[in-house]
Amino acid sequence: MITTQVITRPQRWDEPFDPAMDDRAVSRLLGVPPFREMDEQSFPDRLPLRAILANDTRIVNYKPGDLIIREGEYGASAYLMLHGSARIALDALEEVADKEPVKKRGRLTRAVARLWNAPLAREVRRRPRGQRNAPRLGRRGAGDHPTFFLQDIPRVIQDCYTRPLQPGEVFGEVGALTRSPRTASVFAESDCIVLEIRWQGLRDLMRYAPQMKQHVEKLYRENSLRVHLLETPLLAHLSDEQLAAVADATRFETHGSFDWHSDLLGDKPEDLFARVEREPLVAEEGALPEGLLLLRSGFGRVSQRRGDGHQTVSYIGKGAAFCAAALAHGYRTGETPPLRLSLRAVGYLDVLLIPLSVWNEVIAPSLPPEEMQALLDNYCGQQCAAETSLPARTLDFLVDRRLVNGEQTMVIDLDRCTRCDDCVRACAATHDGNPRFVRQGPIHDHFQYANACMHCVDPVCMIGCPTGAIHRDSASGVVRINDPTCIGCSTCANSCPYHNIRMVEARSPAGDILADDAGLPIIKATKCDLCSDQPTGPACQHACPHDALARLSIADSQPLAQFLNLDVLPSERPGGPV
């Protein structure tokens, strides 16, 4: 007989950011800016200001030279200087760039040598050699959260262009809110005290404290907004004065849950319609558009009503524009029409809203005639949009499992695959006898999306890596693991919602398991590196004798549709103006 045990339902703050944050520390924080200017009455009873500071922040002490933020890493925290001084390096710090260089392709001798020199045992690691930057980049502490520090601060300040950060300044907020790589390193210049605010707390502070929201938005407008607008094709033709007017009027919106990968790891109800209904609605079909929506980060589901449900038309991501077609039709006819499509946040979605008046007065009059006509044609075509893109059930499968996040997804045609495992053997031969993927994964129709690293648009595996060992190569976009700096903490493997990272026990060339001083085995994270140092590219794809395997960007519908044996028009690519 099955019995039921009653337990307390888990709550958000069961695990505070820092258990040592007591009432005394919170009271001190309430006496410093910007918290002392905040009205505690504006916070709801379920999210009081004191509770946010007690559970979503922690006070960290840094010594001179300690790295607070490393350029290129992914993080989920913003920082507030409380005491002392730090510096932001506006030039790249050579000491921080300790990633393993990617060997150039095209050297056949390297590929042949790898076959001849392959070790007999699996997961062999050579004796660690001294770090390239050891005299200039030090490491303090052990375990999963070591601290790295610069050893020659005067030389760094002399050789690099840096800017001081003083008490009261906020930094790291854009990377925390948009889950983008840090654009600069920050290091302590003197003994300093920093308040680290995890993104959940920063989100709530911005929601209920207008001055915090205004401050963060001001920083984004000054440092990043103009660059984002310039990268938008619809705005590329604007003059500096017009672009400044657009930037001044732009509003920021966030929809959905930043922890979408945690939801994906959990159980999902079977009813797709119910899941779509729960996705946060950004713009609704039939409603009048408020303005042009530009996607800053995350993914959106574009859908159309069909009977009592919703049919997925496409998915869009960072850099895409929504409502442009309807706005163009309204500008040409003088009457803004209702939207023919809906936009929902898949997981989470950050958008920039450019008001309708700015579109009509600044953007639309400056659009080249051919671009305006393309938008008008797109608006007319939205009446039959559901019939001219990937099949709705395929789109629902890709969006529901967040496979749209994949830049190099391994797709296997099971009708052509003979299960010969040549792909697995080729992967093993390229990686010293250790395959870096598992030929299993979710199946839709007769296509399998295998458990191989997808080198995602939103690489949640990078968040929390204490050493920056897992990183995206800036030149190729490949997500790689720098083996010498991997400490085996499993943070990346636990964060990957697709189960594409494996933790393995390292061995010596003789086959012995490597262990630390306490006798515990040395663990390393492993995953597909897209054979970035091989002249042929991904060995798995190159070795398949039946062309049953391909590495595809799910964000690009045309190659995907061709591989799935579907007919898709060349112009139908998710990410363009809708």
TrEMBL record:
Keyword hit for Repeat: yes
InterPro entries in the record: 4Fe4S_Fe-S-bd, 4Fe4S_Fe_S_CS, cNMP-bd_dom, cNMP-bd_dom_sf, RmlC-like_jellyroll, RnfB_subfamily
Top EC class for this record: oxidoreductase
Annotated Cyclic nucleotide-binding domain residues: 53-223, 234-366
Entry's EC annotation: 1.2.1.58
Domain 4Fe-4S ferredoxin-type: 408-427, 477-506
Protein's name according to its UniProt entry: NADH-dependent phenylglyoxylate dehydrogenase subunit beta
Gene that this sequence comes from: padI
